[in-house]
Amino acid sequence: MKENTLYIKKHSRINSTVIMLPASKSIANRALIIDALAGKKSPLKNVSEARDTVTMQRLLNSDGPIWDVLDAGTTMRFLTAYAAVRAEEITLTGTKRMQERPIKILADSLQELGADIKYLNNEGYPPIKIKRIKDQLTSRIKIRGDISSQYISALLMIAPELPEGLTIELTGHIGSRPYIKMTLAVMKAFGVNADWKENIINIPKQSYHPAQYTVEPDWSAASYWYSFAALSEDAEIILKDLKDDSIQGDRRIADYMSQLGVSTEFTPQGAHLSKKAHEANASFDFTDCPDMAQTVAVICAAKGITCKMTGLESLRIKETDRIAALQTELSKFGARLEENEDQWLLVPAHSIAELRSPEFDTYHDHRMAMAFAPLSTLGDIKIKDPEVVNKSYPGFWKDMNKAGFKISEL
Ligand SMILES: O=C(O)C1=C[C@@H](OP(=O)(O)O)[C@@H](O)[C@H](O)C1
Ligand SMILES: C=C(OP(=O)(O)O)C(=O)O
C-alpha cells in the first residue's frame, strides 16, 4: 500500500485559534465496555470518533466469531476481559504490531478466574481464542503492575460482574497509575464502588446502572497544542471545554509545560494557552503519563532544553518501540535520546535553524506524527503516513489548517 506524505509549510505565529479537541478515547472505551456490561442503555455523550473507539463500538455490536481490534491496545485488552464474562467463544486479533504486544499477564489472570484461553500463533500474544468463565475459580488474584495498566483496568471493569467479586493485589512497580484511577472513576459513574488501599483493590459483586455520561475532551490530544504554543514565536490557543479538573492523568502536561514555556489559564470557555519563559534544563517522570513522552522530547529537542526523562520503560511495547522511533527521528535534526540504565537524557539540537524540510517517519504511531508536526512552527517539514492520527485524533490535520498551517500532499 502506498504511504502518503504531507508537506507542511513553516508557520510561526498562531493567532487566537479555538480548537475543539477530540474526546478522550481512553474514557470512551471504558464507558462503552461498562455500558455494554450494564445492558447498553446509557446515553453516552461526546463519544470519540477516534478509530480505537469506533472499533470498540463496532465490535461490541458484533457477535464474532472474530473480533479484529486493528491497532487499539485498550480495545484488545478490555474486550478480552469482556469476552471472558460475556462471549461463548471469540477469537481476538489485530494488526501485525498488535500481535507483538503482550497479553499473557491479562490472559493468565482470566485463566485463573476460569476462562479458557488459547494462543493461536505465539504464546503470550494475540491472536487468542477465548471461552467465557463458567465457574469462578478464585476471588483473589495477583497481577504485576509494571508492564501495562490496561490489564488491570480490563479486570477491574469485569470484577463487579463476577459472582464472588474480585480482589486484585498489584505487585511490583505500578506504571500508568492514573489510568487505573480513571477506570475506577468511570465505574463509579455507573454505580460501582471499589476500595483501593495500598496495593489491594477490592470490588465486591455489584451491578452497573445505566447513566448519563459525557466523555471529557482528550488531554493527550491537548499536549500537541501545548507543543505548537511552546515552539511558535507567538501563540494564543483556546482548547475548548478542556478543564483543569479531569480524570485523565495526562492533565499533568499543563504542569510540565509551565516549565517548557507555556502557561495555562482555565476559563469557562476552556484552557487558554499562551507563551512564557522556559527553563534551560528540565527533568520529568513519565511513569504516570507515558503518552506525553514523545511530545515533551520533541519540544525539548527543538528548544535547546536538556531534559532528564524517567519512566519510559513501557514505551517499548506501544504502537511501535517509541524509544527507538524517537532516537531515529530526533537524530534527523541533530538531537539525541541517550539511554543510561533506567533513565534517558534528551540532548537537544544545536541549532534548529538547520531544519531543511526533514521527512519524519511515523512507524504506524499516531503520537509520532502529532509530536513531530509542531516542528513546522520552525521550518518546512514532511510527515509520512499522516493517516496514523486517525487512531486518536482524526481531525488533527484539519485543526492545523484552522491554526493557519498550509499542508499539502506530496
Ligand atoms: O488505559 C488506557 O486507556 C491507556 C493506558 C496507557 O497504557 P499502559 O497502561 O500500557 O501504559 C496508555 O499508554 C494508553 O494510551 C491508554
Ligand atoms: C498507547 C496507546 O494506545 P493503546 O495502548 O491503547 O494502543 C496510545 O494511544 O498512545
UniProtKB/TrEMBL annotation:
Q: What class of enzyme is it?
A: transferase
Cite the annotated pathway. Metabolic intermediate biosynthesis; chorismate biosynthesis; chorismate from D-erythrose 4-phosphate and phosphoenolpyruvate: step 6/7
- Residues bound to phosphoenolpyruvate are 25, 73, 101, 150, 322, 367, 391
Annotated InterPro entries: Enolpyruvate_Tfrase_dom, Enolpyruvate_Tfrase_sf, EPSP_synthase, EPSP_synthase_CS, RNA3'P_cycl/enolpyr_Trfase_a/b
Q: Identify the keywords attached in UniProt to this record, alphabetized.
A: Amino-acid biosynthesis, Aromatic amino acid biosynthesis, Cytoplasm, Transferase
- What does the record give as the active site? 291
Q: What is its EC number?
A: 2.5.1.19
Q: Tell me where it resides.
A: Cytoplasm
User: For this protein, what reaction is catalysed?
Assistant: 3-phosphoshikimate + phosphoenolpyruvate = 5-O-(1-carboxyvinyl)-3-phosphoshikimate + phosphate
Using the record's annotation, list all stretches that form the Enolpyruvate transferase domain. 9-61, 71-400
A single Gene Ontology molecular function, please?
Answer: 3-phosphoshikimate 1-carboxyvinyltransferase activity
Quote the record's binding site residues for 3-phosphoshikimate: 25-26, 30, 148-150, 176, 291, 318
PROSITE patterns the UniProt entry points to: EPSP_SYNTHASE_2
| A GO CC annotation given for this chain | cytoplasm
Q: Name one GO biological process term.
A: aromatic amino acid family biosynthetic process
Q: Which domain of life is it from?
A: Bacteria
Recorded hits in Gene3D superfamilies, A to Z, give: Enolpyruvate transferase domain
Q: NCBIfam families from the entry?
A: aroA
Q: How does it assemble?
A: Monomer.
Mind telling me which PANTHER family this protein's record contains? AROM/DEHYDROQUINATE SYNTHASE, PENTAFUNCTIONAL AROM POLYPEPTIDE
Family indicated by similarity: Belongs to the EPSP synthase family.
- In UniProt terms, what function does this protein have? Catalyzes the transfer of the enolpyruvyl moiety of phosphoenolpyruvate (PEP) to the 5-hydroxyl of shikimate-3-phosphate (S3P) to produce enolpyruvyl shikimate-3-phosphate and inorganic phosphate.
**Name of this chain's protein:** 3-phosphoshikimate 1-carboxyvinyltransferase
Question: Which organism's genome codes for this protein?
Answer: Fulvivirga imtechensis AK7
Gene designation: aroA
